[in-house]
Amino acid sequence: MAGMVSLCVASLVTLFVATSARIPGVYTGGAWQGAHATFYGGNDASGTMGGACGYGNLYSQGYGVNTAALSTALFNNGLSCGACFEIKCGQDPRWCKPGMPSIIITATNFCPPNFALPSDNGGWCNPPRPHFDLAMPMFLKIAQYRAGIVPVSYRRVPCRKTDGIRFTINGFRYFNLVLITNVAGAGDIVRVSVKGAKTGWNSMSRNWGQNWQSNANLVGQALSFRVTGSDRRTSTSWNVAPSHWQFGQTFMGKNFHV
């Protein structure tokens, strides 16, 4: 009980800023696999803004140009939003950059299938193909522009983020839509709960991408959030939004250890 009281007091003191505490355990990532990669979005990646994960402006959200749209096989109906991948060009000296450098990207968008074209000639994102449509600046780090499409090796890796998990609260009184960004560790999310100062923990449902909703009336209450990643580790951010929070505001909570 004394430990719980101390934790709540510490959370109140650090309101509006990221806590330095970290969650025990480390996400270890996965094995190397094969896929292909193309690019989109232009030289400045401006065409990659928005996207099926709901992150909006990728620059202001901290993702920058280190992003990709995933094919159906990898996107997993949005469950992969926020996951991080290491990618390197395959053994193709004609198109791959010398030394086979690797890049780290975050999944921020969906590459839809094009069933009007064959999977090996334009329908690159058709199932069951694993495919990455990279932001153009990232593609150019591993391959030549003229290549267009290259074979790659990829693996899941831990997401390394600066500061804490961000919770952006949108909606209205009986519809709370919370966009969750900047998640370290596994990066993707499988479960979210919210707690008002006058309520217990309420499960939130995925609306789309990384937007999670609750129909509870939480206006006028300090809010806490509990986030579970695909590695089943959980981060609880106590009282990150004060009782006078407003729709449209963003608050920062506790992130996962990497």
Concise synopsis of the structure shown:
By secondary structure, the protein is mainly beta. It is built from 3 helices and 14 strands.
Task: Describe what you observe in this structure.
- The chain is mostly beta strands and 258 residues long.
- 9% of the residues lie in helices and 36% in strands.
- The protein is built from three helices and 14 strands.
- It has helices at residues 2-13, 72-75, 136-142, and strands at 33-40, 67-70, 84-89, 102-110, 131-135, 150-157, 166-172, 175-181, 189-196, 201-208, 211-214, 223-229, 234-241, 250-252.
- The strands form two sheets. An eight-stranded antiparallel β-sheet has the order 13-12-9-10-11-8-7-14.
- A hairpin with a 4-residue loop joins strand 12 (223-229) and strand 13.
- The two termini are 28 Å apart.
- The model is unreliable at 1-24 (pLDDT under 50).
Rg, nearest Å = 20 Å
Q: Main sheet?
A: 8 strands, antiparallel
Number of continuous helical runs: 3
Overall average residue pLDDT? 90
Helix content: under 10%
Hey, roughly how much beta strand do the residues contain? 35-45%
Report the span from N to C terminus.
Answer: 28 Å
How many beta-strand elements?
Answer: 14
| Alpha-beta content class | mainly beta
Strands of the widest sheet, in order across it, are 13-12-9-10-11-8-7-14
Topology as H/E string?
Answer: HEEHEEEHEEEEEEEEE
Shape from CA axes?
elongated
Which consecutive residue ranges, at least 5 long each, have pLDDT under 50? 1-24
